[in-house]
Amino acid sequence: MRVQKPKHTLYIFLAVILCMVVCLVILKTGNTPEPVTMNVSLYKVVPDYDSFKKTIADRWKEKHPEVELNFENWDCYSGEVPEGLDVFVFDTISLDSFAERGFLLALSEKDIQDYNDLIPSFVEGCRVNGTLYAIPQFLCADLLYTRKNDADLKNVQNIDSLYNVLGDSGLLLDKHSATSKICMYLQALIDEKQSYMDHFPPIKEGELSPIAADSIEKMRKMHQTDPKNEPEDEDQFYFARKFAEGMGRAYIGYSEAMNEMGESASDMDFRLFSMTDSKNIPVFYVDAAAINAKISSKKRALALDLLNIITGTDALARAQTNGGSPQYLLSARYSIYDAMASDYPLYEDLKKIASVPDAFVFR
Question: From the candidates 126, 140, 192, 260, which is the catalytic residue?
Answer without folding.
Answer: 140
